[in-house]
Amino acid sequence: SSVSDSEYTVDSDTTYLSSKLSSGPQQPLERVAQSTIKLVATNLIANDHLLEGCQLLCLIKKAVDACRYMQNFHHYNEAIWLAKVALSRDEYFEVMKYYIDLLVNNGSRHLGILLAISLHYFDKAAEILLATKLVTIAAPLVESCIEAGKWPDTGSDIKDRVFVEYAKYMVSLNNVEVALKYCDMGGEKGKQLGEELRICAQ
For residue 154, what pLDDT band results from cuts at 50, 70 and 90? Predict the structure, then answer.
């Protein structure tokens, strides 16, 4: 049938290109046009041969692209596995960040938070917690990370935002003393809120 013939052609082409790329010193990679291989790979992916196309991408050291294609086509488990075995640490984390965002956007926020914490993305976990209005969990998490020297120095203001929101929560409980403590830890906005609270307390 035409379907089986097409699959046979794909398998044959993939096998041929794979053998060319993995044949060692007799066929160095420089003799094979990477752009041509990438074009073949993207055509395979566009024609519902995702895994075959990704295989070719990996053979020309384009595993990052392969992971992105897998994610775009909702093959998340395969993308994570490939990222873990084929990518650098930073590239692997980028793939996982995408997956965390996906979990959060699909309503699995708690799973996204746990995954972020397991990967030491504490700022990401705090951001999700704050967006979920779980500031009573976010503040102790951030504070514990800072005390342990584990808080990432990314330039993000999430730490300050968490402490300011937690200070406001303490104010709602009439616990101004604790609120002021967190205001002092909340950057410029925290200091402003602290000044307002001290004025009101006079």
Answer: confident
Q: Which of 161, 109, 117, 115 is nearest to 135 (CA)?
A: 161
- Tell me how far apart the alpha carbons of residues 53 and 84 are, in angstroms, rounded to a whole number: 19
Distance CA 156, CA 143 (A): 15
Q: Is the pTM of this model over 0.85?
A: no
120 in Cβ contact with 113 (< 8 Å): no
Residues contacting residue 74 through CB under 8 Å, at least 6 positions apart? none
Q: What's the rounded Cα separation, in Å, for the pair 129 and 139?
A: 9
Q: Which residues contact 46 (CB under 8 A, 6 or more apart)?
A: none
Place of tokens 């993995």: 22
Q: Are 173 and 199 spatial neighbours (Cβ–Cβ below 8 Å)?
A: no
Residue that is written with structure tokens 């794979």 in the block: 18
Instruction: Give the angle subtended at the CA of 21 by the CAs of 17 and 22, to the nearest 5°.
Output: 115
Report d(CA 188, CA 191) in Å as an integer.
5
Taking the mean position of all CA atoms in its chain, how far away is CA 182?
29
